[in-house]
From TrEMBL:
<keyword id="KW-0238">DNA-binding</keyword>
<dbReference type="GO" id="GO:0000976">
    <property type="term" value="F:transcription cis-regulatory region binding"/>
</dbReference>
<dbReference type="InterPro" id="IPR041479">
    <property type="entry name" value="TetR_CgmR_C"/>
</dbReference>
<dbReference type="InterPro" id="IPR001647">
    <property type="entry name" value="HTH_TetR"/>
</dbReference>
<dbReference type="InterPro" id="IPR009057">
    <property type="entry name" value="Homeodomain-like_sf"/>
</dbReference>
<protein>
    <submittedName>
        <fullName>TetR family transcriptional regulator</fullName>
    </submittedName>
</protein>
<dbReference type="Pfam" id="PF17937">
    <property type="entry name" value="TetR_C_28"/>
</dbReference>
<dbReference type="InterPro" id="IPR036271">
    <property type="entry name" value="Tet_transcr_reg_TetR-rel_C_sf"/>
</dbReference>
<dbReference type="InterPro" id="IPR050109">
    <property type="entry name" value="HTH-type_TetR-like_transc_reg"/>
</dbReference>
<keyword id="KW-0804">Transcription</keyword>
<dbReference type="GO" id="GO:0003700">
    <property type="term" value="F:DNA-binding transcription factor activity"/>
</dbReference>
<dbReference type="Pfam" id="PF00440">
    <property type="entry name" value="TetR_N"/>
</dbReference>
<keyword id="KW-0805">Transcription regulation</keyword>
């Protein structure tokens, strides 16, 4: 098998295994995430799972890395589209963050539970968010307002993750639109 095909097959196997792990965490919680559970869910042999993820911790790291990669791709695409359309990268990012369908509550809570045992698992998330904010705040007309908007978007995401439905869908849409408007307003 050519190197490229082998690399693609391995990436594909990793994705299948990570998909299976996400289903286990969503259905049963992070505490029940085991290599054996992923073997059953994925259809791979135990050796196949262990070849790709030698431990449960490596599996969780892979899950976090995949989320970070997806967010990074979404952010870069939003920034590129904004530049090409002559729009504010900051407002495009806020719009993307608001529109992006998050992972399920149960899955995210499971990852948070795993991160409570191993706080270093969140280092890639912290790194991505820190870099993203540094880059975007540098171009913000009002950096303090941009921070407030970022915190509000984070609050919406945490409310989703915790199942705190304190806004109707219509109210949420209005809040999200207002956040984009706020970040688009010139500094006074």
């Amino acid at each position: 098998m050519p190197k490229t095909a082998a690399k693609e097959a391995r990436a594909s196997a990793r994705d299948v295994i990570l998909d299976a792990a996400e289903r286990v965490v969503e259905r049963e919680g992070a505490g029940r995430l085991t290599i054996d559970a992923v073997v059953r869910e994925s259809g791979f042999s135990k050796g196949g799972v262990l070849y790709n993820f030698p431990s449960k911790l490596d599996l969780i790291k892979g899950m976090v890395a995949r989320i970070v990669d997806a967010v990074h791709c979404d952010v870069e695409l939003a920034r590129k589209d904004a530049r090409e359309q002559g729009q504010s990268e900051l407002s495009a990012l806020i719009r993307t963050a608001c529109e992006k369908e998050p992972h399920s509550q149960k899955f995210m809570m499971g990852l948070m539970a795993a991160a409570a045992e191993h706080p270093e698992l969140l280092d890639p998330v912290r790194g991505l968010l820190t870099q993203m904010r540094v880059d975007l705040l540098a171009s913000a007309a009002d950096p303090d307002l941009a921070r407030v908007v970022f915190l509000a978007v984070d609050g919406l995401h945490f409310a989703d993750m915790l199942g705190l439905d304190f806004l109707t869908p219509e109210e949420r849409a209005r809040v999200e639109a207002r956040l984009v408007d706020l970040i688009s307003e010139p500094k006074s």
